[in-house]
Structure formats: C-alpha cells, structure tokens
C-alpha cells in the first residue's frame, strides 16, 4: 500500500492549529464580554443568618468557555477520523489530530466540571475555595494584604506564605461575605488600604 503524501498526513495537524486559534479568539471575546458585564452588575445578597456561607460563581461563565471549546474539538476529531477512514492520512496524521484534539476537549470538560463543582465556603475561621479536584483553606488571620482591582472588579488577597487568592466582588453572596470579612480580617489589613475598606463597607451595606 502506497504511503500517503506528507502534505496529506499533516493536514490534521494544520486543522488542529486552526482549531486552537479559533478557540483562542472565542476565549478572548468571551472574557471581554464577561468583563463588561461585571462592571455593570450589582451583586445580589443571599438569605444568610449564621453558619458557613456558600458562594458559587455564575455557572454561565464556565459554560460560555466550555461550549466554544467543544466546537473546534468536535470538528477536528471528526475531520481527523474521517480522513483516516478514507485513507487520506496515515498514522502520523491520525496521531497529530488526536494530540491536537485531546487538550481542547480536556479544557471543555474542565470548564463544565468547574461550572457545577466550584464554590467558595466562608467560615468564621477562614475562606475555603473548592475547585474541580482541590480544596484550599485560608484562615482570616493568615491574610497579610488585600487589594481591590476596580477594572476587573475582584479582590486580590495575599496570604502570609506568599500565595494569593482572587475573589470576584460581583457574584451573589458577596455582600454577606463582606459582612464577615470586616469582622474577621486583621485590623491592620483593613486599615492598610482605604479603597478595600470602602468597597467592603458598600458591599456589606447592600446585604442589609
């Protein structure tokens, strides 16, 4: 059996690069859209009296990233296996198509898993961030610095061990989070940045 021409065998690889480029454009466009939405949204409060406070990021954000990733992955996978089934590409082209498809598909799967699993649990003792496969607990006393980014509309926390924690300020439940934060954050941290204290006070007031 004659080998497929090199140009044909690398067709799936070129399609993979195109798919990744399309994904990048969609991701950048989606992020810009979400940023514009965040600047215009006032966070809702939740019915909370005592005990742990659970905050979930909007599922639509992760879903908006996951769905566009499925499109190039499905297109690339279908083209790759179609070309291999018709004998238009060899093992190298098939392998290249698979290598290009799997990361994009994995990214989409991660986004969907994140949409349904990710959450933030706020205790009197600290903040617990739960992701797809990991948990992280940060005690209030271990927070060394808090900054607020008005453009992205999120809090940037620096922990005493040098690690960082990002918290969006415009998701449901942040007013209640602010009520806890102004009580539990070290006084020196609250006094270090007047902007942070002002934003926390405004959010806490929105919670009633």
Describe the structure.
The termini are far apart. A hairpin with a 4-residue loop joins strand 3 and strand 4. The strands form two sheets. The protein has a four-stranded antiparallel beta sheet, with helices on one face. The protein contains seven helices and seven strands. It has helices at 6-9, 11-40, 59-85, 91-117, 174-184, 187-192, 194-206; strands at 53-55, 119-122, 126-130, 135-139, 143-149, 154-159, 164-168. Helix 2 runs antiparallel to helix 3, helix 3 runs antiparallel to helix 4 and helix 5 (174-184) packs across helix 7.
Task: Please give the structural blueprint.
Layout: H1 6-9, H2 11-40, E1 53-55, H3 59-85, H4 91-117, E2 119-122, E3 126-130, E4 135-139, E5 143-149, E6 154-159, E7 164-168, H5 174-184, H6 187-192, H7 194-206
Antiparallel strand pairs: 1-2, 2-3, 3-4, 5-6, 6-7
Helix pairs in contact: 2-3, 2-4, 3-4, 5-7
Query: Strand portion, in percent?
Result: 15-25%
Could you tell me the number of beta strands?
7
* N to C succession of SSEs: HHEHHEEEEEEHHH
Please state the average pLDDT score.
Answer: 78
Strand order of the largest sheet: 1-2-3-4
């Amino acid at each position: 059996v004659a080998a497929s021409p090199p140009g044909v065998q690398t067709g799936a690889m070129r399609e993979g690069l195109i798919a990744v480029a399309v994904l990048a454009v969609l991701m950048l466009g989606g992020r810009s859209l979400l940023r514009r939405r965040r600047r215009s949204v006032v966070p809702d409060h939740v019915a909370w009296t005592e005990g742990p406070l659970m905050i979930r990021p909007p599922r639509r954000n992760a879903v908006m990233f996951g769905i566009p990733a499925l499109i190039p992955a499905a297109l690339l996978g279908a083209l790759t296996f179609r070309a291999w089934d018709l004998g238009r590409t060899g093992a190298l082209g098939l392998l290249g198509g698979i290598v290009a498809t799997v990361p994009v598909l994995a990214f989409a799967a991660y986004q969907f898993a994140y949409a349904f699993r990710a959450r933030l649990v706020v205790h009197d003792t600290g903040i617990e961030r739960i992701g797809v496969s990991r948990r992280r607990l940060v005690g209030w006393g271990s927070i060394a610095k808090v900054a607020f980014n008005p453009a992205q509309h999120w809090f940037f926390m620096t922990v005493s061990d040098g690690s960082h924690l990002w918290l969006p300020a415009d998701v449901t439940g942040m007013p209640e989070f602010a009520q806890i934060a102004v009580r539990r954050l070290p006084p020196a941290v609250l006094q270090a940045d007047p902007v942070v204290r002002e934003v926390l006070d405004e959010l806490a007031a929105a919670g009633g």
